[in-house]
């Protein structure tokens, strides 16, 4: 099993450009999450999904959109990138049940110039 | 909203010694979950240990144990017999339903 994978691993954008980050998991998990990690801060939840076709806002959702058309995939979109969105983005997935461990992907480093 | 505070930005410990990382949180909830994650230089987030708030017994995983004080809203991590491979950022996290909040992290260096 590959676990949680993220595409791409690195990306540089210009202000105003758009892009989509792809998260894929092969563990048949119900729940998926997108976080961002900035220097000196812990991970902050952007959006999450509790099942195919569902999405919900997290702590810092502004400037991002998500879609969960297939159970195994969770897409994070930036419609008009801003320098404030320069960050490392992590995807995670887990089975239903609050005690269950979240499994994280390797992260995507995004730079917006 | 829940907040998680890690008051030690950096710590160091000699190999084979014991170190304790602090974490406090603020919540009005009664049932929740607490986690410690490790992030080595590879950037991969790895679960170290977890605790259910309704369980009074402190969780233990091999060399890692926690001191969970619910009334004080404290959740410290003790690493015994520290190893060089324990060098990493350590994040404390609080979770209620799908809302996971992380602390800012403690950078731990294990010295030979």
Explain what you see:
- The complex is a heterodimer of chains A (113) and B (112).
- Chain A contains no helices and 11 strands.
- By secondary structure, chain A is mainly beta.
- In chain A, 35% of the residues are buried.
- Chain B has no helices and 12 strands.
- The relative contact order of chain B is 0.34.
- The model of chain B has no long low-confidence stretch (mean pLDDT 94).
Question: Outline of this structure?
Answer:
Chain A is mainly β. Chain A has strands at 4-7, 10-13, 19-25, 31-37, 43-49, 56-57, 65-67, 73-78, 87-94, 103-104, 108-112.
Blueprint of the fold:
The complex is a heterodimer of chains A (113) and B (112).
Chain A (H helix, E strand, L loop, with lengths): L3 E4 L2 E4 L5 E7 L5 E7 L5 E7 L6 E2 L7 E3 L5 E6 L8 E8 L8 E2 L3 E5 L1
Parallel strand pairs in A: 2-11
Antiparallel strand pairs in A: 1-3, 3-8, 4-5, 4-9, 5-6, 7-8, 9-10, 9-11
Chain B lengths: L2 E3 L4 E5 L4 E3 L2 E3 L6 E7 L6 E7 L7 E2 L2 E6 L4 E6 L8 E9 L2 E4 L3 E6 L1
Parallel strand pairs in B: 2-12
Antiparallel strand pairs in B: 1-4, 3-9, 5-6, 5-10, 7-8, 8-9, 10-11, 10-12
**Share of residues in strands of chain B:** over 45%
Assign the structural class of chain A, choosing from mainly alpha, mainly beta, alpha/beta, alpha+beta, or little secondary structure: mainly beta
Please give the count of helices of chain A.
0
As residue ranges, the low-confidence spans of chain B are none
The count of strands of chain A amounts to 11
Which radius of gyration of chain A do the C-alpha atoms yield?
A: 13 Å
Give helix and strand order of chain B, one letter per element, not per position. Answer: EEEEEEEEEEEE
Nearest-integer average pLDDT of chain A: 94
Strand content of chain A: over 45%
The greatest interface here is: A-B, 23 and 23 residues
* Oligomer status: heterodimer
Kindly state the number of beta strands of chain B: 12
Q: What structural class results from the helix and strand content of chain B? A: mainly beta
Distance between the termini of chain A: 36 Å
Low-confidence stretches of chain A: none
Estimate the global geometry of chain B from the Cα principal axes. globular
Large-scale geometry of chain A: globular
Helix coverage percent of residues of chain B? under 10%
